[in-house]
Design goal:
This is SDR family oxidoreductase. Helices cover 43% and strands 17% of the residues. The protein has a 7-stranded parallel sheet with strand order 3-2-1-4-5-6-7, sandwiched between helices. Strand 5, helix 5 and strand 6 form a beta-alpha-beta unit.
Length: 250
């Protein structure tokens, strides 16, 4: 059992991106100590108790990062935001012939990374009492092909991972869920567009959704944190949070 004076901690992977940063702020507002992992340093104004440079596509998490996480307090929630499209995959014209290296890199970033963070942190969650959870960031692309088969397959793989681990983790009273987000207005989305030689028109993309706009990073973060910390009965589920975008795509 964890002493009540020990800080309750949440780990946010991908803390340096727009969605990850918004998740950090929301979890901090909820009163938890926040630890961030990412391959690039976060912005200076993020409410992090600590940050560690961690590449979750590698086979192991550095011991320094795990020691730092354990020292921050009782780990209660892990929100895994790491992921994203690969520009080389998006450039492919023959989607049945995506190069093996590109496919592997995309799966590593979006699926293997989730397995790595779970394997590295599960004993810390087991050592904590009360509600605990993993929340994985998926995409509506998991439900259909939209020009990136590796990305879609990896996100769908997260759903299989959730289904496979929900029962075993429940024996330790640990929840696991995924949130399938729709298109979100992020700097990384704009960056990918520019690498492909075009400017992203979020207004045009949003106009094709039922509500007429894409998600903001804070809306995406609201969905992730609600599943992570506000729904103790929710486990083994994929929650679609895309403002109805999947309805328009169908």
């Amino acid at each position: 059992m964890i002493d009540g004076s020990v800080p309750r901690t949440a780990l946010v992977t991908g803390c340096s991106g727009d969605i990850g940063a918004a998740v950090c702020r929301r979890i901090d507002d909820a009163g938890y100590t926040v630890v961030g992992w990412d391959v690039v340093p976060p912005r200076a104004d993020l409410p992090l108790s600590s940050y560690q440079p961690v590449d979750l596509t590698a086979a192991e998490v550095p011991e320094t990062a795990l020691h730092d996480l354990a020292a921050a307090g009782a780990l209660q929630y892990v929100v895994h935001v790491v992921g994203g499209s690969d520009v080389e995959e998006l450039r492919q014209t023959d989607l049945a012939r995506v190069p093996a290296g590109v496919f592997e890199r995309t799966v590593a970033l979006n699926l293997f990374s989730a397995h790595t963070v779970i394997r590295a942190t599960v004993d810390l969650l087991r050592a904590t009492d009360g509600d605990r959870s993993y929340t994985l960031t998926s995409s509506t692309n998991a439900f259909g092909g939209y020009g990136a088969p590796g990305y879609s397959a990896a996100k769908a793989g997260l759903h299989g991972l959730v289904a496979a681990l929900a029962g075993p983790l429940a024996r330790d009273r640990i929840r696991i869920n995924a949130v399938a987000l729709g298109t979100t207005r992020t700097a990384n989305y704009v960056r990918l567009g520019r690498l492909m030689g075009r400017e992203t028109d979020f207004d045009s993309i949003g106009s094709r959704t039922p509500r007429g706009s894409v998600l903001s990073p804070d809306e995406a973060a609201a969905a992730l944190t609600a599943v992570a910390i506000a729904n103790p009965a929710l486990s083994g589920e994929v929650v679609v949070a895309d403002a109805g975008q999947h309805l328009a795509r169908r």
